[in-house]
Structures are given as structure tokens and as C-alpha cells.
Design brief:
The structure is a homodimer of 321-residue chains.
Chain A lengths: L8 E4 L1 H9 L5 H14 L3 E6 L20 H7 L7 E7 L18 E6 L4 H13 L3 E6 L7 H12 L5 E5 L7 H14 L4 E5 L7 H10 L4 E4 L13 H7 L8 H17 L6 H8 L5 H8 L7 H9 L1 H4 L3
Parallel strand pairs in A: 1-2, 1-8, 2-3, 3-4, 4-5, 5-6, 6-7, 7-8
Helix pairs in contact in A: 2-9, 6-7, 10-11, 10-12
Organism (chains A, B): Paenibacillus cellulosilyticus
Protein name (chains A, B): 4-hydroxy 2-oxovalerate aldolase
Keywords (chains A, B): Manganese
Chain lengths: 321, 321
Amino acid sequence: MSAKNNNCKIVDCTIRDGGLVNNWDFSVEFVQHLYNSLNEAGVDYMEIGYKNSPKLLKGADSAGPWRFLDDDFLRKVIPNKGNTKLSALVDIGRVDENDILPRSESMLDLIRVACYIQDVDKALDLVKIFHERGYETTLNIMALSNVMENQLIEAFQLIRESVVDVVYIVDSYGSLKPNDYVYLVNKFKEHLPNKRLGAHTHNNMQLAFANTIIAAESGVELLDASVYGMGRAAGNCNTELLVAHLPNAKYNVRPVLDMIEKYMLPLREKEEWGYIMEYMVTGMLDEHPRSGMAQRDNVEMRDRVVEFYDRLTTPEIAHSK
Amino acid sequence: MSAKNNNCKIVDCTIRDGGLVNNWDFSVEFVQHLYNSLNEAGVDYMEIGYKNSPKLLKGADSAGPWRFLDDDFLRKVIPNKGNTKLSALVDIGRVDENDILPRSESMLDLIRVACYIQDVDKALDLVKIFHERGYETTLNIMALSNVMENQLIEAFQLIRESVVDVVYIVDSYGSLKPNDYVYLVNKFKEHLPNKRLGAHTHNNMQLAFANTIIAAESGVELLDASVYGMGRAAGNCNTELLVAHLPNAKYNVRPVLDMIEKYMLPLREKEEWGYIMEYMVTGMLDEHPRSGMAQRDNVEMRDRVVEFYDRLTTPEIAHSK
């Protein structure tokens, strides 16, 4: 725990990334209790959902309101905003820029744009729009473990010249080890000396918290986390662990424990995320967890770990995926 | 993942440390399947239980046979020993040295002696006896996070002059961070240049695997783990993660996945270990998990996380513990 950590900020993604688990079926009461808990705990940002457009996504009708955030609705949910800022994620091709109010009229402070490496240019175009409307911005490059260095170098050039505030190193598949994270952080620092960095980890191999604090030691400032780790598949770095770990005196773990006791433990009885063998296998193999999620959704197939491993590692089957 | 890891050996503690969860109530079939799985997976050692004497322990009658290993019994359990060596743990004051056959007549290869820092001298006396009977030996110094440096320096002198093969850095409370482990490994290397090192971690803050691989990068050679993390309270580093991570070509994760699917997932339905909030709190506070275990045993109290946290952090209550 070093003085370096003092610039770190926590971005809680429970609603946004956790929504991928329960189709954003969080009650207003749940989200309000979470906001108040995070605010009391000193957490810097709460990512309260996606700001994608329902017109641009199929299956939109069934999802909870946190998938398509609306400013009027948000004002009712959070009538008394505290120090915890609000964030939303957008995906390129799924956001209608006309939906984004100027920051002065919005509840949101931070808009983050997620993309794969080949779409960094499009993502930066969006970032520019949000930046001009007054928002803090981040660019979240996903699936970095599958990106070749030459692609990364090209992307760095675009990013260096852009207005984006923070660039995220996202371990989408939960396949990175601490050494890999340190390598990537140093690479990003070398090529993006004018940008701040963020880390978003997944817990497939129980390394989400470790990778996050090691990234912080290496100079990463924005640290993504979820309460009780709630997030797609293996989930994320746990907010309670980060709050307990970071040296900043403003952080207080007790309200996060309260949120876990009152809401997360009961929710975990109904919904599933965390260290689950199918996701350990996809993490180990550096793959998207979708094959694991499909197996977990099938009650007959669930927990057939060896069959799953064989399917993903037998060449003639794996190659046709 | 570096070439340094190539000297690493895995010591699976599922039966010994996992026995603390279920009072060593493992069937012979379970232990045989585990041995065969570990042997096929290339795991170097299986710690098959304690070699304490039932005469020196109360409550001995109710425990399974793995708490008081007997060589005749072991010969029946493992009729065809493979490459995986067998290990037993003893506690000082609880072992009768007359129970220990010469290694040439025993199924065991490795005897490990666990002690707190103030008993290192007594532990080394036992180590000497086992060493003279032909066993590989380790000294496992527990609760290092609560040891002052001057005590450690005194112990180092005794250890340097002893016959012990390997000295373990044990994070009994699951309170150490990666930086702490690196600090301790370097301290041990500096003072014990003639000894090999081991690491035994606990998963209270989801750092067991991370601390283990970071200790390995720093030069630790014997790595303790348990299948599916089974061990007291928050449990240990997961054998399957280590087997998947270490670069040695002899390791094969598939048999470990098979053990998990057939035996560990059903067992986890009945018995409890892992990332559980009470243990996260004791880890965070650098305390023995016994208060958490007591709360988990009480169905009325279980999951009252905030009350538990308050009890452990309110000065007038915490000081009387």
C-alpha cells in the first residue's frame, strides 16, 4: 500500500455490469440504497447503467430501466446527489447522440465509451461529442488479451491526439495475470503519457482484486469494481475489498458491508456470478465467457466441467467455434 | 509466467486443511479419487492429513482417520503409489515421536511441522527427529502477519543452523497483500540463503492465488493449494488455478477439474468455505478467523455482517477479545 494509491478513484459498476447478470432488474429501492451506501463509503463514481438507445438494440423491452438511462427518471431516483458522481457506459453503434443532454442539464458526470480495438476511431468520435457537452470521458478498450501489439500502437496514436480523459485497460476475459497487467500498464504509460489510466478486471481466475491493486501500484488511477463482485459471468473486482484496501481516509467499508448484507447476499441466492468452474476454464483459455454462460443456462449441462473443458480444448471442436 | 517458476512444486492440502472444515469426514473413495487425480495432474505432493497423536488431543474420537494418520491404514488407501508424494502435518505438543516410523517403512515422504514463532526451537527439535528418520521436512511458521521483526530475526538464526529443508511463509489470517508477501519472501531469502521456501496462503481477500504466484515469482518453491480452495474458513489457493498457471509441462488441469466436478461441487453444497463476508472482515482486520467461524456456526447470526464488523472494530468490545 503506497502513497501512489492516493490518486486512485473507485468506479462502482454494480448496476451496469451486474445488470448483465439479471437483465438490469434492480428495483429503484435497491439502486437508491446502493447510491447512498457508495456515497457514505466515499466511492468516487457509481456507474448507474448504460446510456444506449432502445431503438438501436433488440430485446430492449424486457430490460430494466438501467439499460437505457433517462435523465428525468434518474432525477427521481437520486433526488439528493452527494459526492459520488454518476457514470454511464455507451457502446459504439448503440448510442444515439441526440439522447445525450449537455452535462449542465444532466445527472451524469462521466460517460464511458466501450469498444474493441478496431473501433477506437469511432469510439473517439463519440468521446469528442460527450467531451464537448461537458462530460468527463473514458475510452474502455475491451479484450486487450486478444490484441496484437501493432494494432495497439496504431490505436495509441489516435488516442494520444484525442480529448479523452482516461483510457481503460479492460481484461474482458479474466485471463490476465498480475505480470500481464503490469506489462500493459507500462506499455500504455509509455505511449499515452498525456492520459490517465483505468483498470476493469474480471474474476475468472480469482485475480480481479489482485490485478486491480497491482495496476494501481503501477500508476492506474480509475479502478472499476462491483459490490460483492456482481458482474457478468465471473464478475468483477469487489468494491468492498478496494474500499478496505485503498489508503485514502475518506473510504469507509461499513456502508458497503451493509449493502452486501441487505441486498447482495439475498440477490446472490437468486442470481449467479463469481468463481464458477466454466468461467475459470474460459478465463484460463483466454476466451469470452459466452460458452460458459450458455452451459450455465442449461440446467442439464451445468457443472459438467470436464465435458466443457474437452469441448473447448479438443481441436476439431474448438476450431469451429 | 517466468522460467523461475520451473522449480516450483505443488503441495495439495485438500484433505489436511479441508479436514478442518468437515472434521476430516472424507470417505476412502474420496481420498483415493483425489490421490489418483493429483497424480495424473502432476501435482508433486498430497498432504493426506495430520500425524498428530489422538492421545494428545481432545475430541479425537469424532474425527475422521485423516486427522491421525496410520501407516497400515494408508497402505490400504493407496495400494499403488504413483509419482505424487505423501505428506503429513504435525503440531508441536500434539505429536508422539514414537508414532513416526522410519521413512523406509512409511508411506509418507514429507513431514511438515507447524508452529508459532515462539516455538520455532521446539519445532526444529521435531524436524531433527523426522530428518534423521529419513523424511523431507518443512517448518511452517504460522501467523507471520502478527510477528515482530526482532522475533523473526531470532528465529532465522535457529533455522539457518537447523537441518530443515524448506521454511514456509504462512499467511494464517489471509491478511497479506502481494506487496507484503514479496517483502517477507525477500526477508526470508536474505536471512535463510541456505533454505528453500514455501508459501501457504488463505483466501479471505481473494488473494490466495495471486499471493502464491507472486511468491513463486520471487523465488518460493513449495506452493500449498487445495482443490476448489477447500480449507478452513476462507480456504486456500486453488490447486486447479496453480496447475493451470505453472509452466511445467507435466501439469494437467483436466484430472483436477474431474475431481471438482465429481466430488468438490457436491461437497460444497454441504460444507462451507471460501469468500464469505465474515472471513473477509477478519482478513481485513488481520485476525484469526475463529470469531467468524463462531458466527457462521450460529444460524441466527450468520450473514449479519455489519454487526460482526462493529463487534470486531468497536474498541471496548474488540479489546476484550
